């Protein structure tokens, strides 16, 4: 089973818009990641779950347009920035289909750390806005990093927008 962890794409500053929708740069970077994945590897997921915050929902909706999950996009508890990563670590024990989780820092990094190391605080991978980390659950129920794609690899260095 593959699990795809995604930090939402870059959002507008809170001072500009308190709901923090995606910025133009965030959308652009996410579209480049999606385009790359479309030509390099097929992601087949049943469901894309998101936190319900506008930036995560927008990211999940854009991803769904490209990935076309068989069930669709759903809001889920346990994906907000300060949520306990053990919530989703436990849920994943009973999920055998490919899923994508779209959330926030520090939660996504803590979840990856918990799955990979058994400790949410070790942070073995760095999470990037609009980046995708593919974790594979091995037959022995241990998780391993299969691949990571980050916008900086595709977009080059850009100034903040």
Can you put this structure into words, describing what you see?
By secondary structure, the chain is an alpha/beta fold. The protein has a single domain, classed as 3-Layer(aba) Sandwich (Rossmann fold). The protein is 34% helix and 20% strand. The chain contains five helices and six strands. The protein has a six-stranded mixed sheet with strand order 3-2-4-1-5-6, sandwiched between helices. A hairpin with a 5-residue loop joins strand 5 and strand 6. Helix 1 runs parallel beside helix 2 and helix 3 crosses helix 4 (107-117). The radius of gyration is 15 Å and the shape is globular. Mean pLDDT is 93; it is low at 157-161.
Query: How is the biggest beta sheet arranged?
Result: 6 strands, mixed
Which CATH class applies here? Alpha Beta
Residue share in β-strands:
15-25%
User: What name goes with the CATH superfamily?
Assistant: Phosphoglycerate mutase-like
Count of runs of 4 or more consecutive helical residues: 5
Look up the CATH topology: Rossmann fold
Label the CATH architecture: 3-Layer(aba) Sandwich
- The structure class reads alpha/beta
């Amino acid at each position: 089973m593959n699990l795809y962890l995604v930090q939402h794409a870059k959002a507008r500053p809170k001072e500009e818009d308190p709901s923090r929708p995606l910025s133009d740069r965030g959308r652009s970077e996410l579209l480049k990641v999606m385009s790359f994945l479309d030509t390099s590897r097929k992601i087949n997921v049943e469901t894309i779950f998101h936190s319900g915050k506008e930036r995560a929902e927008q990211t999940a909706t854009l991803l769904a347009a490209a990935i076309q999950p068989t069930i669709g996009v759903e809001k889920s508890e346990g994906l907000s920035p300060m949520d306990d990563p053990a919530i989703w670590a436990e849920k994943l024990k009973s999920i055998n289909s490919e899923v994508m989780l779209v959330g926030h820092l520090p939660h996504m990094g803590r979840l990856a750390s918990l799955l990979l190391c058994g400790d949410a605080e070790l942070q073995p991978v760095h999470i990037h806005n609009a980046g995708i980390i593919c974790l594979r659950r091995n037959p022995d129920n241990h998780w391993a990093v299969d691949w990571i794609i980050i916008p900086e690899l595709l977009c080059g260095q850009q100034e903040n927008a």
